[in-house]
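Why do we care about 3D structure at all? Because function follows from shape, and shape follows, mostly, from sequence. That is the central idea of this module. The next example makes it concrete: a single protein chain, its amino acid sequence, and then its structure expressed as tokens.
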Amino acid sequence: MPDKKRTATGVLSGLAGLVGLSVVAGVLITATVTPAIAVTGAATSQAIKLFDNMPNYLEIDDIMEPSTIYWKDGSGNYVPQTSFYDQNRSPVTFDQIATVMYDAILSSEDPRYYDHGGVDLIGTTRAVLSNLEGGGDTQGGSTISQQYVKNILIQRCEWNAQNEDERQSCFLRATDSSGSSGIERKLQEMRYAIGLEQKYSKNDILLGYLNIANFGGITYGIDAAARYYFGVPAANLSLSQAATLAGIVQNPNTYRIDQPDRETNGAADGYALTKKRQTYVLDRMLTDGKITQEQHDAAVAEPITPQITQPTSGCASTGAPYFCQYVVSVVKNDPAFGATAEDRAMALRRGGLQIYTTLDPDLQHTATISMRDNAPASVSGIDFGASTVSIEASTGRILAIAQNTNFSEEANAGEGFSSLVYAGNSTFGSSGGFQAGSTFKLFTLVDWLEQGRSVNEVLDGRMRVFKNFTNSCTGNIVNSTPINNFGKVSGGVGTPMSFTAQSLNTGYLAMASELDMCDIAKVAKKMGVTTGDGRDITMSNPAEVIGVDNISPIAMAGAYGTIANNGTYCQPQAIDRVTDTAGNELKRPDRQCSPVISPEVAATAAYALRGVMNGGTGSGANPYDGTQLIGKTGTHEALQTWMIESSTRVVNAAWVGTVQGDNDMFGRGLQNIRYTLAKNLQRTADQIYPAGDFPAPDPNLTKRVLKDLPNVLGQTIEQAQTTLQNAGFEVSVGDPVDSDAPTNIVAAQNPGAGQVAGGTTVTINPSNGQGATVPAVSGKVQDAQKTLQDAGFTSIALGTCTPDDKLPDNQATATGTNPAAGTAVNRGSQVLINYSKKTCP
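And the structure:
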């Protein structure tokens, strides 16, 4: 038990209690161990009655064992990375312990072990007499079987202990033999030992004892002791080492040899107390014929030389501490590992869980090196943080987690140190997430497509106050406050394709204003996104469209993985399987994959997101290695930056920002770190997980949408621009044209009013104020000339003649004009009168 206060006090008092016990000892052994011994008297009868009424069966519980976290090495084999324990123990089989260790423990603790049936009357009596006479070494009266029983009972009690005081109480109760209660405890221990030997073999009991026994501090079991004190497995113990450990087990915290600075039994005196006990063990082995005199003398002469080898424990010792810490938080918080927080904590530190994780060592190496080389652990004047996470899209397996800070679980460890997993949330990682910025626009895009809207539909994305956002879940109708675009660009008319590639806030607000905000919230939920503290996204504020909610990088990566996985969302998972120490499969956290959006919507969303990585805002994170990628950038004020990108196989999310506070990150030139982190990860992921192209988008969701083009002739230029832009058209103002209208009036429009493709650019031309409209003419040519003159035209001539034999010889009749009647032309332009005559010139 992990208790440095434990001494032999309880054992000594128990031996004193054996004086009273000796009265009935012969009776206790009579029926089970030795030949009949005549015992008479009332005390004997009472002892027999008490003994017979005691339970005789002791269930051997699972012993406390460390839980171990594994991940694969470069060859694809699972290797242990670290352990968590209250008791450092590595149980072994019978053949994994050196024979000399069995000889040492039996000679010193129970030389007649293979001859008695659980209780050794001779040894008990000898111990009582020796201790009463004040012999040199304290003699123990308990057999190996009895000691095993005692350790089982201690372990059972300690398993449920809530604190150090309760653990200490467990030990004292199990070892105190003083008074009537102590004698009764000793009787029960004997009764259990006898029952144990009737059910289990001697070898099984001996092995069980060596695997459960304490060897000082939190070191339990012979193999852990051998590795800790001497750096060797139990199978490779030498005679000197075995005798030392056999001595330690008799009084662990007195004889332990891992405290060299102690005044007594430290390095300075050659661990004198332990050496004396080791010599006693060697003497017993020599007496029993287990070793030769030469072996005995050589071992006695050899100084005790510890090779203390600290076992790997905790996440700090691993190459991926924040991935490890995420796994630990899953074990501590997921119901698969226990109904209560207390159950789960005990499962991790006592349950012997073998946890096989999803980490990819090569991708993790890239993440670690890239983070180290590009993101400082701390930045003066800002609570700076950076994190990356990589997820396999088709399974949700978390392949890597890296973070800029140095891992430490110490409180107030200092600037640049943290145990929080920035990639996680408040439940798994103890981090609350960060404002997602424009990466959150994904959910508006998906809802747009689910409503059957095209990514090539034209909308007015100009900066303005957007009105009448509806939310059917809350029943609210709200307006937006003015929201700027990045760089304060004004925005303009465009399509979801262009809005996505350029991450135009006002474009996405235009989209959201035509949707139900409740539906956008539902999209986020079904794609696995909640706030960092586990609440559902509400979309009660238009600003949520552009990512003001705190969300974990793992959640956002999982959502983008849904697009890469053809609409199937896989819950992120860090654990592949869990077993007990025997390899039996245990329940692991429930993480499912389920289709949440249609493949057509996913493919079309990917089509839009590809534009981000090819000429859009995310092109700086594209490794351009031939792999087709989707992605999205995100910023929130000058505080948070994101880059999420994905092939069809692996999603990589990079977050760089302020952990807390409102210090400007952009002013320190930190905003582009995200691109480097994401690009390095994507390049490695593309090599390890070769990916194909994304499916083609759905034609119905990419079609050009026809819209009604209004007639703006006669409107002012300003009125016409507003009319056309509100209708979703780009507007171009051309050169003035001849018209008799005022100079600011639209005199021409191309194309004209009617059904045209959305996104069409409409050219409008203002009047130059110098035009006149050609009037219709008829009758005699002379009359036509006057009509044109009256209309303001000064340059008039005869045009085309058409023969008409019905006319008189000298009569010419006007048939029309060129330009035609109704045409607006400059007053100085020549107008030709077309006419008919009997004989044309």
